[in-house]
Design a protein that fits this description.
Elements (H helix, E strand, L loop, with lengths): L1 H20 L21 E4 L1 E6 L4 H4 L1 H6 L1 H19 L2 H17 L4 H11 L4 H10 L4 E9 L5 E9 L5 E2 L4 E2 H6 L3 E8 L2 E9 L7 E4 L3 E7 L8 H8 L7 H11 L3 H10 L6 E6 L6 E6 L4 E6 L8 E4 L15 H11 L6 H8 L9 E8 L4 E7 L9
Helix pairs in contact: 4-7, 5-7, 6-7, 12-13
The chain binds 2-acetamido-2-deoxy-beta-D-glucopyranose (NAG) (5 copies).
One 2-acetamido-2-deoxy-beta-D-glucopyranose binds next to helix 10.
GO cellular component, one term: extracellular region
GO biological process, one term: sphingolipid metabolic process
Subcellular location: Lysosome; Secreted
Amino acid sequence: MRAWVLVAAAAAAALLTVAVVRARDPYAEECKIHEYPPTGPTYKGTVSNYIINLDLPPSQRWVQVVHAKKTELLIVMKTIKDIFYTFVHSRKLIASMESKLAWLGSTLPYPFNEEIKGIASAVEAPLGDVVAFNIFYEIFTVCTSIVTEDTSGKLYHARNLDFGLFLGWDIQNSSWITTGKLKPLMVSLDFQKNNKTVFKSSNFAGYVGMISGVKQGIFTLTMNERFSIDGGYIGVFEWLLGQRDGWWMSFLTRTVLENSTSYEDAKDKLANTKLLAPAYFILGGNKSNEGCIITRSRTAALNIKNLDTKNGIWYVVETNYDPWKPPLVIDDRRHPAMNCLNHTKQEKISLGTLYNVLSTKPVLNKLTVSTTLLEVSEGHIETYLRDCPDPCSPW
Ligand SMILES: *[C@@H]1O[C@H](CO)[C@@H](O)[C@H](O)[C@H]1NC(C)=O
Ligand SMILES: *[C@@H]1O[C@H](CO)[C@@H](O)[C@H](O)[C@H]1NC(C)=O
Ligand SMILES: *[C@@H]1O[C@H](CO)[C@@H](O)[C@H](O)[C@H]1NC(C)=O
Ligand SMILES: *[C@@H]1O[C@H](CO)[C@@H](O)[C@H](O)[C@H]1NC(C)=O
Ligand SMILES: *[C@@H]1O[C@H](CO)[C@@H](O)[C@H](O)[C@H]1NC(C)=O
């Protein structure tokens, strides 16, 4: 696990250095208003749909989707290994980490351990690589999520998934290497029991935790990374040392999407379950004012910011900073998103206008893999792959 620490420390150091050096965002632009339906240079295509049959044994559930995406998944796992290699410069250390990660996989809770094993055997990859891919995401994401309510009380939820910060920059075409490789791995998933949809999600093929999803008529859910000095990844180390009472955050979101049956229950689980690392959960319900950002430390909800339409709060926006604090000056996606929502106005809120907001730089940036739009009453989800040609903010 030493490489993880190195990568995380390098990332933190880089963020701090840049924070001192640069002040204003030179890439900001006027709010986009004609991006939807998606076309043009920032639209890179749509994603395919797959069914995950929860009636199958966990080891069988992902076989169809990872067979279809085998090449892409193997490329991403190799990229992750290459990145480690640039940090540790030792094939031997990588091999030893691979076997430690395989062991880590066996300590993960059911059904995730079994699903990950099934994926590894379906694509004939070392178990450790699939485990690394599944916990990788917990560490390197920066995102923007929005829950909003229109004037009729209908709820909408949308998110940009930004991934790959500091994981290698391709100088030739000025893009993040991992971000580019992840795009073909994005899929839309329909989780079913008894041939009926339980929830829908957009996700990476072979990633068993959930990052965005909708449960029809009940709630929508996304999670964003919370970089926090206190607490950080101590939970992950405790897990390695055998203290395993906390939850991996994307496993919690998956369990909530699969098994929670009300907005209140989802909110309670997301706010009160002990986690391995800090996180933001962005939850939308199916009724007026059901929408919130839950700011989590490992053990508690530090703050819950709710929609409050009577007092003019008809949206909540979360990037990767605590809602009660200003965002980092060099990474302010919050104010541009709020500014564009204000320009849109509550009367005009729709999936299309939310797509416009999420298409405005720097909310859209070079880390953006995809934009996902969720509508709870119809249980609707749509996902688009994104591109951000120059000039465009690197994050
Ligand atoms: C950048 O170039 C690499 C190959 O050098 C390619 O795989 C990737 O798709 C390119 N990215 C973009 C955004 O064009
Ligand atoms: C689901 O549908 C398929 C074919 O439509 C059928 O063979 C299968 O038995 C059904 N499964 C359940 C659990 O109802
Ligand atoms: C969700 O909200 C819609 C109205 O926006 C309503 O028609 C529907 O019955 C609600 N669904 C549930 C399960 O409450
Ligand atoms: C949801 O609950 C069922 C029944 O208790 C359980 O078998 C399943 O593993 C749970 N799902 C997750 C993702 O934890
Ligand atoms: C958006 O509007 C709200 C409410 O009027 C205001 O408090 C906020 O400062 C505005 N934000 C931006 C970035 O324009």
